Each structure stands twice: as C-alpha cells, then as structure tokens.
Amino acid sequence: MTFTLDAALAARRFEVSLSLAPGETVAVLGPNGAGKSTLLSVVAGLLRPDTGRAEVNGRVLFELGPSVHTWTAPHRRGTALLAQDPLLFPHLSALENVAFGPRSAGIPTREARETARHWLTEVDATDLADRRPGELSGGQAQRVAAARALAVNPEILLLDEPLSALDIHAAPLLRRLLKRVLAGRRAIIVTHDVLDAYMLADRVIVMEEGRITEDGPTRDVLRRPRSRFAAGLAGLNLVAGTVTSAGIRSAEGLEFAGQHDAPLVPGQAGVAAFPPSAVSVFLSEAHGSPRNSFRVTVTDVEPHGDQIRVRAGELSADVTPAASADLGLAPGLEVYFVVKAAAVSIYPA
Amino acid sequence: MRIRRRRDSAYNGIPRWVMAMAAVGALLVLLPLAAMLGRVNWPQFIPLITSESSLTALGLSLRTAAASTVLCVVFGVPLALVLARGDFPGQRLLRSFVLLPLVLPPVVGGIALLYAFGRQGLLGQSLEIAGIQIAFTTTAVVLAQTFVALPFLVVSLEGALRSAGSRYEAVAATLGARPTTVLRRVTLPLVLPGLASGAVLSFARSLGEFGATLTFAGSLQGVTRTLPLEIYLQRETDADAAVALSLLLVIVAVVVVGLSYRGPAPAGSVSRTARPGAPWRVAA
Questions:
Q1: Is A85 an 8 Å CB contact of chain B?
Q2: Do B136 and B7 lie in a common domain?
Q3: Candidate from A41, A73, A80 with C-beta closest to B175
C-alpha cells in the first residue's frame, strides 16, 4: 500500500528515487530549478521521464525501460494537483469547479454536486458555492481549489507552493485548513517555506540539482541539517510547546510571547518561530519587559556570513563580530537571549 | 477591464504626418463606399433587392455560407487545436498550407478544387463512378467557400488557444478528466469568444466569395449563383440592381465586423505559455 517512484530525465538532470507510506505527507524543499516541480509533473503524468518506474497501491503509473513501456495517462492516475495559482475554471461556479472531478469520474451530476457541497463545507466555503472564480479573493479561490482537489479523493495529493501566492492574512487560515485535511492523507508538498514543512509534513526531502540530497523526519532534517540548503532554512528558531494566552510555553518552561493571526486556544500544541537576527545577547538580565528574556548557556559560536551565530541548545542568535568580542562569547558562558515579541510568530500546530 | 478615454490629454507620441497618412488610408476605404452610396437608386431600392433573381441569390448565399461555416467549425477546430497544442514534425509546414488560401487568389483555389473534385479530377473520377458529381453543383459552392474561409477560423481560434494557455487543461487532467471531457468542459468554453469571432469571420468570407465559386461551381441561377455572382452579372445589364445588392452586402459586412471585432487585446495581456517542467505554471 505504498507509493514508490524511480525516475530519471536526462534533459533536466533529474534523477529521483522516493517512496511514501500511506497517509504520509512529505515536504519538498530546495532552491529554484532544483527539480521540485519536475517531480510533481512526473508523478502527475504531465511529463514523461526517460526511464523509471512508479507504482501506487500495486498499480503501475509508469514503467519505462529498454524493453518495457507502460504509461498511465494523467487522468487515470488519481493524483490531484493544487498549484500556486488556484486555476479555477473561470466559466464554472465554485460548486461546479469542485464537482468537476467527481463528474469526470462518471458520477451523476446530482451526486457530484453533493460531494462538492461536502468538500466546500470542509474548507469553510459553503457560502461561496454560487460565485464565479472572478468574484473570489485569492484566499477564497485557493480554498475552493483545495476542495476541488480533495473532491476526487486522490491517491496522492500534489501541492505546488499552495500558500505562496496568498497574502499574509489568507496564508495562516489556509495553512491550518491544509493541516486539517492533510492529516492521514498521502501528499507531496513543494514549498519554499520551512514553516509549511514543519507544520504540514511528516517528512522532508531536500532537492538540489535534480537529486534528493536529504530525506528524513521533518524535525531531524531541520534540527540537524546536512545539506547546505536545509542549513540555510533551518536557521529559523522553532520552539514547540503549549499555547498560552500570550504565546507558547516550551517543554523547558520558557515563555515566548509573539504575534499571531489565529486566535490562540490555551492548552493547544503550537510553535513559535523567529529568526536568529531578532535575538539580542546580553550578559546580565535585561531591564524592562521580563518577557522573552531567557537565561541560556552558549553551546557554540561560529561565523555565519558576516555575522556570528551564537547557539544555545535549540536557540540561536546572530550578533556582529564586534559585539561577540565585547561580550567575550564562548561555549559554556551564561548569557541572556532577548527576543522582541514583535519578531516572534506564534502558530497553533 | 479596458479603460476607454476620449479626448485624453495624455501625450500619445504620434507625429502629425503619421496622422495625415492615416487619414488618407481611412479615406481610401471610406471614399469608394461613400461613392457607391451616392449612386443608390433609393426609390427603387426595395423592389431591386426583392426581385426574384436577387432573392434567389440571397437565399442561396445565406444557405451556402451557413453550411460552409459549419464545415469550417467541424474541421477548423481540430486543425487549430493540433496547431496550437500539438508538437510534431511538419507542424509549421502544415500551418503554412492551411493558411495558404488567405493569400492565394481565389480563382487559383477554384482551379485547384476543379482538379481535385472536377469530373476529370483526382477524386472526381472515383466520385463520378460512385454517382456523385460535385463540380457545378451547390456542393461545389460550399466547398469553394469552405476552402477560402477555413483559415479565418483556424487563425482566430489558434490565437485564442495560445493566449488561454494549457494550464487549465493540465489541472483538469489531474482531476481525472479524459481528453475529450477536457476539450468539451474546459478548452472550448475558455476559447468560446475566439471561436465565435472566427465563425463570424468565416461566415462573412463565405458570403463574399466570388473567384473560386465562379471557377469551380459556375453561375447557374438558383444552384450556384450566389449574391456576389449575381451582382457581377447585373452590373452588365442593370447597374441600379448591382449597386442595391452591393449595399446589401456592405450592410451585412458591417454587422458582421461589428459582431466579431472587439479590438486588439489590451496592452500587457501577454500570451501565457506554460513552463515545460510544470504545465500548470506560467513560464517566467
């Protein structure tokens, strides 16, 4: 009951081997031109590799080799695509857009509309059913597009940067929605945003120059990145914990206050994210607000670009070389990390 | 939405001499029409265009032009799709040949059709044995009109298909729609305005067809003598009737152009080619 893929496409220097367990969501990270979209195209059947084999639940999607040539057309694959642009059919209402997949599968119109209504409810878009795509905002259209992709009950859901075209208000809403509908669903999500990987995926693969350079559980890859690309991404401080009225309380009991778009429900699991550049380092406890000031022990001091990255366990801070010298930063030193609440984003996970 | 501004005071950068030449160009088109309008025998206008021979010719013209428009849609839509979406050797060559009737003198088209479907022609001989005669019948009129009008539909639709891009089709396929379903429910609705304007142009071109019709179908009243042929014939004997019928065709042409011509695409609407690796994305 798994999905396996082996594919090579010389013209794009693409060579990937990948497998997904049922219900597993994998995030694909990587620089532009690394072959992330090519991977989705190959799985969807929109691009034909030179050689390779793919199979889902024992059904062969393609097998291309010197003596074999099996090819399943895109419409028989059971792979629905949610792209950066919603690409809703402009001449159909939202409801008809969602009903498009079921109807194409031969389901009678009335039943297909029922299915469509169900999925519109799932994405909180029941009231948009009769609207034309032209009358929807970017976030609304993407929600309807998500319902349309889910309505075909795909074996594999393919998501190509589904949040990157949305504004900062619409993105968190859709991210939560995706988190809900992706639970227990097999999906491949191409993203630029490490937070999407962290919140939506069980596993991360990093692609560079057409190959997979890293593959593992999301937390491991982001905590101990081996590829350059993941190392760059993983710079973001991510603190998992429990949601409080003001922010997040970590397992170690540290309180992080921050900004949030979604209403916070205390007791819920959540994550606080902030860049190392937003962290200041002091030798004594900072005056003023006691919030977001943490007594930590420096574990590592290393150059990072033209800055110095100071690590203290899971947290890191960037300071100038001059500041580092003034403070006399060295492993073992006890310092205070101070983060401005304005720079911390709180996400219920 | 295109914003139309009249008497705009913004700088447009058109030199005066260009405007003058544009005016001469416009006159070149308008002056002859105005001159013709001046020669219309108004008191006799209605009787002239409702004479038996005129009505017969008009009826034949409308029927044959409608039939050729149907043929243009039936064969032009697949041709445009293959040319816009396909990728095969000889594609450019095929496009050149399909567009040839646009630049070919119609009389040459008529001769070519005669050698294909005429009694002594390539297919005509076999058709003759089967008891089917095409040349100098109403069928020949329809064939001649289709021959000259087909490129109008193909060009118009291919342009619409190219600017619509194939991103919606890619998404529709991943949602489980068979190619025929994608064509019916996504592609054609998206290019419907282009298809409609192409069909209207084909109809107009069919209505005005003269050279190929005369060569391939002849000029038999009620059978192959369409309105343009009737006008040409009347000119010899009854100039007033010729002018009246000409005006009728001008009116039809103005209506057709008004229906189908919507001006060029607004600036900035670029054709959206899909990225080869990800057909649902726009190429950068």
A1: yes
A2: no
A3: A80
Task: Clarify whether residues B227 and B95 are in a common domain.
Answer: yes
For A58-76, what is the HEC assignment?
CEEEEEECCCCEEECCHHH
A29 strand-pairing partners: A206
DSSP letter for B23, please.
H
**Residue for token pair 């002239």:** B48
pTM exceeds 0.95: no
* Other residues' Cβ atoms within 10 Å of the Cβ of residue A129: 19
Residue whose structure tokens are 């939506």: A200
Q: Cβ contact (<8 Å) for A87 and B275?
A: no
Beta-carbon count within 10 A of B91 CB:
12
pLDDT digits (tens, 9 = 90+) for A160-193: 999 888 887 788 788 888 988 898 899 999 988 7
**Closest Cα to residue A156, out of A40, A325, A279?**
A40
Q: Do residues B95 and B69 both lie within one domain?
A: yes
Quote the CA–CA distance of B122 and B114 in Å, as a whole number: 9
Ranges of residues in chain B whose predicted pLDDT is under 70: 1-8, 261-274, 276, 283-284
DSSP-assigned letter for residue A128? G
Q: Min CA distance, B1 vs chain A (Å)?
A: 12
Question: Does the structure's ipTM exceed the value 0.85?
Answer: no
Q: Do residue B19 and residue B48 come from a single domain?
A: no
Cβ-nearest to B181 among A80, A87, A104: A104
- In whole angstroms, what is the distance from residue A242 CA to residue A244 CA? 6
